[in-house]
Every structure is written in C-alpha cells, then in structure tokens.
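Appendix B. One record, verbatim.
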Amino acid sequence: MSNCAQIPHCVWVTFFVRQCFCDGVKPLTCEAGAVDLKVRVLRWAAFHPLFMLHAALIGLPSAGKSTLFQLMTSVREAARGHGKTETAVGISKVPDDRLTRLTSMYKPRKEVPATIEFTDFIAPGRAGAAALVDVVGYKTADALVHVLRAFRDEAVPHPAGSVDPARDAQAMEDELILADLGVVERRLERLERDLKRNKSVELERERDLLVRCRTALEDGQPLRSLGLTGDDLRRLRGFQFLSAKPLLLVINLDEADVSAAANVDEAAARTGLTAFLSRAATRAVPVCAKIELEIASLDERDAAAFLADLGLSESGLSRVIRASYELLGYISFFTVGEDETRAWSIPRATQAQEAAGEIHSDIARGFIRAEVVSYDALVARGSMAACKEHGEVRLEGKEYIVKDGDVINYRFAT
C-alpha cells in the first residue's frame, strides 16, 4: 500500500488507459477501489513495454492521411465519427524479417513484433497546426508523420487548388512554427513576471533558452533544427513543442509514378522536396495509397507477386512504419524460446540492465548477466548451443550497450 501511494496519479491513469486500449480489458468501476486498481495496474505494467513509440499523422484534407492510418492500424473508418473533431489511435506492427526467421527456427507458440502507436486527428474542414497544440496524442508524440498529396485526381480537389507537395510541406512547417511561437511567447511573458518577483538561476536559464527558441522560430526555423541536447533538451521537454519533433514526410504518389516509390531521392526530386529533406531530423518515404488499398485486399502470396511486378520489395506501409521506427533512433533486440519469439523496442545506446526492464522490472532489478549473441551468428550456426560451442555467446554486464539484432537471454536473481 505504501509503495502504491508513492506513484503519481497520472502514472496510474496512463498505465490503466493503455491497459484498456491495448489489451481490451474492461475498465474497473469506482466501486472496485483505488487500491485494487493500483494493484491491477502494477501487475499489468510489470509485463508491458516501457518504450512504446508514438507517432502522430498530420496533413491537409484529401492527402490520404486517414486512408494510410486505417491501412497501417486496421482502425476502420466505420468505427470513427464523421463531421466532428476527434482523435483516433491505432497500433502498427514493425515489420522485421529477422523476427520471422527466428520464429521459423524456434517454432514457438507465439510471435510478438515490436509496435508503434499512431494517432490521427480528425477535424471537419481544414484544421491547422494550432489545433494540435492541445491534442494530447500530438503533444506526447515522439515524431510527426506528414502525409503529402502528390497524386492527381480531378474528382478530389486539393484545398489549395493545385497539387504541390513542396508548397504543402512548407505550409505545414510554417504552421508548426507559428503554433510553437505562440507557446514560447506566452511562457516568456510569465517568466518575466516571475523573475521580477523572485530571481532564480534556473528560471533565467530557461528564459535565455526560450529567447533562443523564439529567435529561431521568428526566423522560420523549426526547433528540431537547433539540435538541442542535455539540460537544454530537458528544460524544453515539458513544452512538447511540435516543430521540435522529428518529421517523416510520406509522399503519396500518383499511380502513374509508382516506379518512384522504391527510390526516395527520385520521389523527392519529382515533387520538389529535395531541399526540404536536407533539414535536420527529416526523412521521407514515397508510397501510393491507391495501390496500398489494392495490396491490402490480396492474400500474402498474391500481394508479394503484385509488389514484384511493380519492382517493389515491400509495401509502402511497411516502409512508413519502419522509417518511423528508425527516425526515432530505435533498435530491436530479440528474445527466443519455445513459448515465444519477441522483438523489443529500445532507444539506441540503451544499456543491458535498462533493456531488461523492457521485459520485466524484476529482471532489471535482479540483473546478474546478459547472455548475448548476434542475430547473424545465431542464424548462421542454427542454434544457441552451436554458438556456445564456437564461443560466439558472450556474457555481458549491466553497462553493456545493446546492439540492434542482439539475441539476449538474461540471468537474474529473484
């Protein structure tokens, strides 16, 4: 009971909402009691990932944003409201051929891929970036995914009257900048009043940093271009600025231009986005939503044949999901066995003990050693036993930096 009381209420609410959303658990009623709720959430949280990635979709009407969201997350339009403002949330699996290969080796009862949570804001008419400032799913997002219209269709008019992806990308960037500028200016006004009443070194540093941010924003530069680190990044974290988030441009191509979907540079050149993509923390993925709809209606074998005919190795949806994952600087490590093979998401440069907490807090707490073998070595040898015979399984300590593709078995004290 004392341990439960030490955890902030917002943490319990976050865990509980995610439990209900991800696991389909019926929410507890008030009569169940706060203590029972906390115990239940504690049990759930111990077995669920700490690093859930969040990406939020933005874009002009008719760009194909909601279509791509539905395809990536299987959240159907019929389940969503029409003509009103709302936020839809869905989960996408991160495609990883390595996990598929490990599953074929171990033949477990279950395969669990890494996941990303996508948010889509629905609003009647044209809602600018200012409307997103107070939307929780956008404030807390790790990255923004901007769906740009590059397809031509006279039956679906563009809000601006013509199709111009470069213009639309810059227009949305400007809106993000203006939305953040409003937040910065309001905070600076409060800071000036607070500093007149009480001089504080920390408040002065915050003010200086926000003045720097204001200068960049007034010059038309997104905050992601500042490359902030350390204490500066910590001071701004609570503001959750939109223009500070990494940006993925999804170029929704015309069906006639689908050949460019396999080449980002070619798609960027055709749509005038080459210069835009030279900016910090900005990437692009070309797709064709119309073709993705066709692929979604096919079985796996026919879909693969269809993609091969188009000269593509994988669907655009898979590329969008993977690019979102990589843009955020995340990697995957694996656990394998008869029960399940699983990919775990962690930020790059995560230490072994912290990564253990992604599996279960008890493993991190009782961490002794990590048995580590690379994915390539395990697949080449065919079994963990063979890797041990050839000296390819290493015992690593808590400060070991987990690498992408590591297959790990944790030793821990209970």
